[in-house]
Design a protein that fits this description.
It is a single chain. Helices cover about 10% and strands about 45% of the residues. The chain is mainly β. The strands form 3 sheets. Strands 5, 8, 9, 10, 11, 12, 13, 14, 15 and 16 form a 10-stranded antiparallel beta sheet that branches.
Length: about 230
């Protein structure tokens, strides 16, 4: 009770007829002493994201999971009883059970460094990210159209679809994450926020933010608008 929020969102029209909603341009949420605001900003390099009043990214650099899954069917372990080989083996990833054809996203922006078929991992994709991270996705039923080595992908861009190619007992995604070449448990990583507004675009961002803030009735501190 007492919480409130406000939004600025595009409404799209064709010949004066409403056809749908576009981008969410800004949002504000107030709860007691908490007053949060986010602003969509696209710079001249065509990089767009949501930022707070200080130009810090409101988005984590990595998604917590690369798909909408039903359950975690197997966790990261150095000694797991393999369901097919029936012996204890390392399982250096997390298995997400999901129906065949479920879209799988890249967990962060990066460059595709591997697209392969065959072997125990079946159809698999490898993506190199910033901060020394590499993500790997196994057992795809098929790859996203146009996916190739060297392609730049964005966070939450579809790169493939859940399947059970290779050695698998059911449809799932085997998701693996490496940091500087060492396997790490994706469920235990604490990911930093994404990059802030580049300094060269801060003046443009502040002007853009000021217009949106004014429309939402948000008074910005003088420091937030200072050059």
């Amino acid at each position: 009770p007492g919480d409130r929020f406000s939004l600025i969102v595009e409404k799209l029209y064709r010949e004066d007829r409403f056809v749908g909603y576009g981008d969410l341009k800004a949002a504000r949420y107030v709860s007691g002493a908490t007053d949060l605001a986010a602003f969509l900003f696209e710079d001249s390099d065509q990089k767009r994201d949501y930022y707070d009043r200080d130009g810090k990214s409101m988005r984590k650099a990595f998604l917590r999971a690369p798909l909408k899954f039903q359950r975690i069917s197997s966790r990261f372990s150095y000694s797991r009883l393999h369901p097919v080989h029936k012996k204890r083996m390392p399982h250096l990833g997390v298995d997400y059970a999901a129906p065949t054809g479920t879209p799988v996203f890249s967990v962060a922006s990066g460059t595709v460094t591997g697209v392969s078929r065959g072997g125990g991992g079946g159809n698999q994709v490898t993506v190199k990210h910033a901060m020394g991270y590499v993500s790997k996705y196994l057992h795809f039923s098929r790859f996203a159209r146009g996916l190739r080595v060297g392609k730049r992908v964005q966070q939450k861009e579809v790169i493939g679809y859940v399947g059970m190619t290779g050695v698998a007992t059911g449809p799932h995604l085997d998701f693996r994450l490496y940091r500087y070449g060492k396997p790490v448990n994706p469920l235990k990583q604490i990911f930093p926020p994404g990059p802030p507004v580049p300094e060269r675009y801060m003046g443009e961002f502040r002007a853009h933010m000021g217009i949106l803030a004014n429309r939402m009735g948000l008074d910005l501190a003088p420091t937030a608008l200072a050059e």
